Amino acid sequence: MAVYIDPPTWAGHGRLWSHLVSDESYDELHAFAAGIGCPERAFERDHYDVPAHRYGDAVRAGAVEVGSRELVRKLTGAGLRRRKRWSGGAGTGGAGTGVA
């Protein structure tokens, strides 16, 4: 199927981030992310956080550019959406940007 990326508009840790998702499987997503050099620690629940300076690398490798809302629709439609659980505590893990 496809891997999708939204624009780098999510602020966290002093930079902007994109989200990378698959509409097929986590295996497809992990393989794609590894292929563009994303570290495993960039994976958060159902997506990879990709720093703005790596956005072009993902697109050149075949990630389809979509808006953030469309990215969430693709993820949800594939049954791969894993919503963040509210813990009431501080900290979010990963880049802390979350998928909108």
Verbal overview:
- This protein is α+β, with helices and mostly antiparallel strands.
- The chain is built from three helices and six strands.
- It has helices spanning 26-35, 55-60, 68-77, and strands at 3-5, 10-12, 15-22, 43-44, 47-51, 64-65.
- Strands 1, 2, 3, 4, 5 and 6 form a six-stranded mixed β-sheet that branches.
- The protein is globular and about 35 Å long.
Largest sheet: 6 strands, mixed
- Overall 3D geometry? globular
Ranges where pLDDT stays below 50 over 5 or more residues in a row are none
Beta-strand residue fraction: 15-25%
In terms of structural class, how would the helical and strand content be classed? alpha+beta
Please give the count of helices.
Answer: 3
Number of strands: 6
Rounded radius of gyration (Å): 12 Å
Helicity range: 25-40%
> What is the rounded distance between the termini?
22 Å
Output mean pLDDT.
87
Write down the secondary-structure element order: EEEHEEHEH
How do the helices and strands line up, and which of them pair or pack?
Elements: E1 3-5, E2 10-12, E3 15-22, H1 26-35, E4 43-44, E5 47-51, H2 55-60, E6 64-65, H3 68-77
Parallel strand pairs: 1-6
Antiparallel strand pairs: 1-3, 2-3, 3-5, 4-5
